[in-house]
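Async update (no meeting this week)

Hi team, since we skipped the sync, here's where things stand on the single-chain job. The sequence we agreed to prioritize is pasted below, unchanged from the tracker. I ran it this morning and attached the output directly underneath so nobody has to dig for it. Comments welcome in thread, and please keep replies under the output.
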Amino acid sequence: MHGFLIDLDGVVYDGDRVIPGAADAIAFLNQHHLPHLFVTNTSSVPARVVWQKLRFLGIEVPLRSILTPMIAARQWIRANGREPVAAFVPRPTLADFEGLNLLPPDVEVGARAIVIGDLGDQWDYRKLNRAFRLLDNAGEQGCLIALGMTRFCKAEDGRLRLDVAPFVKALEHSSYIEPTVMGKPAADFFQQAADSLSMPMSELIMIGDDIYSDIHGAQRCGMRGLLVKTGKFREQDINSDVRPDAILRSIADLPQWIRQQPWSEGLHEKPFVSKVLDAAF
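Output:
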């Protein structure tokens, strides 16, 4: 049995447009009882909005089958007693931090966790400097949490823009604090996904459009990585130092790829429902 970790933006959908064949590919996984989990570095919107977007695009999945950095961070903060929290994320995304002790947006002292997400155009010097001051004032009691380490992403206008990693790196460099990463390509994030499916990482296959965060991150953890030529894929990715286990034109080619694998014989044809993260919602 093999399972799949599936990126969303650029793999299942591109902006507000579903990738042709994505719904059929996901239906194939369900029909053949192949475990799968959607793993995204999206921190600009809460998990429920991601779920609603999939439904709007005609893809029905359980809310609990979506793992985001915000959900992973909330669990880690609670488990490690890292409150109060200063969260640098869009206001709607704070819904995924419900129940945590959040600092007001103008406070520069008192945080034990400084969480950096995708603020996009909302980033400015004042916000970045506030995050630095929070880290500096926290000293050894503070921690820097990165909601993924994606370097860039595709903007709504189709052009590339900076994602979370450049801002985290600026804070790491200035504060001398190494970030705790909640998202791809962190091994702990992949391990959480594997634990959620009750499968070893050696039996999981990551499907993504990011040669580094998706493919390289997965391969470093012992998984296989399938690169799709959609989303932010660029032709130079093929010539990078990372070698995907396979390259697909899009996720629409996934069923055909699966049928070509030796382990695909005798696949079950009954629905698979993820049991992941029931407590998170």
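Quick observations from my side:
Residues 270-281 have pLDDT under 50 and may be disordered.
The radius of gyration is 19 Å.
Reply here if anything looks off.
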